[in-house]
Amino acid sequence: MATVLAFAMVMLLLLLVQPVETSADPCKPGGIALTGATSGNVSSPNFPGNFPQYSSCIWNITVPSGRIKLTFFNFTFEPRDNTDCSGDAQGARLIITNVAHSTPFKLCGQSIPDPVYSLGNYLGIQLYSANNVYSGFNASYETITNDMLCPSAARLTEASGVITSAYYPRKYPSNQDCHWEITAAKGNHVKLEVKDMQIHRCGQSGACTCDYLEVLEGFNAEDGAPSRKQCVFERFKRLTYYSIHERLRVRFSSNLDPVSGRGFTATYTQLNYTPPVCPKLPIPLSGNGTFSSLNYPVASYPPLGKKCYWLITASAGKRVKVIIKDFQMSNCDEEYCKDYCGHVDFHDGPSANSSYLARYCSLSVPTAIISSGRQMYVKFYSSHRYGRGFLAEYSETTDDPSPPVTTRPPKTTKAPSTTTVPSFVDGKDIGSTGATLTLADKEFLRNGNRVRYIQIIVIQLKEDQNLGTSENEKYSNVEKDYNTQVEGEPYITAEFDYGKMKTFRIGDGKYYSRSAGRKRRSTGPREYFNGELEKGTDCAVFQRSFDGSGKYESEPFVRFATKKTFPTTVVIVVCVVVAVLVILIVAVVIICRYKRKERRTKATVDEAVPLPYSKVEIS
Predict the structure, then answer these.
(1) Which end of the chain is more exposed for a tag (fewer CB within 10 A), N or C?
(2) Domains plus CATH for the chain?
(3) 422: closest CA among 537, 267, 560?
């Protein structure tokens, strides 16, 4: 008896969780009623075969509570019809009723529709077929709550995920106030990429007083500015935000006005390294923890004057103590520790105007630094070269403060030795057909992948050519080599394994290739000829560093001019002509002097010889 009762209870539970169907055929009068379950599947008759002609098929879906989200996996109707059945659509169509964002709601064509949301716990689907038949559709439905669409306080701790406005990419509803809090592991950061946005824009100068997306406790990656309200309706440009610490908060709000748009979609990712950019304002720190340079520890910090600021505050009666745990800054020309060199400054107070405690550069030996009061201001500056950067540990202490620095670090207004990257091309070793390149010391890309090989790309410039930057899209696919080069266009002069050399001689007339990886053993890597440059020509060169997957980062352009020389034949001819002229001049001088001397000698002889005596007879 107990066994029978248990079996009966199991069957009752199965009935409760499975959809209840009033008919096995949705194309019969009344259609199919799917009730009781919180999720299920629905598809057109005979799917993936063709649905019948001239039929009307109905599915009535009811869930216990909440709303219904209908997600399509396949959708094949008349290909000539518009997706919304507008115009002269004549083929089969799907009509969905009790839809939150539009009623009635029609679907045609062959594009897979975006998810459809119900207004309540019921959703009606009707398929009307015509004379042309296709495989139809296949979809699933699930129960969702209002808080899933617009959470009041969602806490997200996953490594990555997606957040959207309600019904995205369909029009969002009015009167929304949605909140997400994304928290990374201690010491990590959050990266938020807003990939699409269409939000009703209103207010003076686009002040976003109606509907808006707002990111809090973060900053904009483009300019480092604090995050603010965004409401872009047209010509949206992707936005990237980074959290200042471990947490980033996102808010989406819409007012009672029925005017709306697609809303937004954004992806978030936890970063186990320092973001590649810094906020404009100093990063506030307190208590105990760590801070580090850009991209640390997965890649080198970016060059060319990136700045970061930290303001560390201790509790009352305590001082700030900083210990450098790792430190590697790039070398900087012959001028040591100047302002344009990479450095880290420590100030004994709340700003850069406070007295100096220390400056660390490439050759510094870091020691513990202790403020005299509750605050310490730290500034990082990246120079023209890459370096691993630094990791610092801060804490509160009652130890004695560091001795004051009586003189400020040296300053200079002297510009670096080249316009873009000092010592990238050695000015003392630029010849008529080549130049020596000092390779950038980059072990990792900013994505964290190790550098596997290097390309050297050269452009022999046209007159007044505008280069732009080496990261410009026009330099993304360089295929020409030395033998196929065109004036003013980039060509690859060499490719070799990372770490193989520290300097490279452009135009040495040798062939270069990298070692074959596992995926290239059948054909082998390409070999490039590093041919001589034209004499007396303006050139530009840049280094490109690749990881194993083919992703790369480009160093800045460096321009130089090869030296002008005369051809050897011309030099010989000129020398011969000059020699002949010299010989002729000398010969003429000697002949003239000889003749002049001869005339003088003859005149002297004539004066010394008496006239011959003549006898005269007188008759």
Answers:
(1) C
(2) 16-144 (2.60.120.290), 147-271 (2.60.120.290), 283-397 (2.60.120.290), 425-561 (2.60.40)
(3) 560
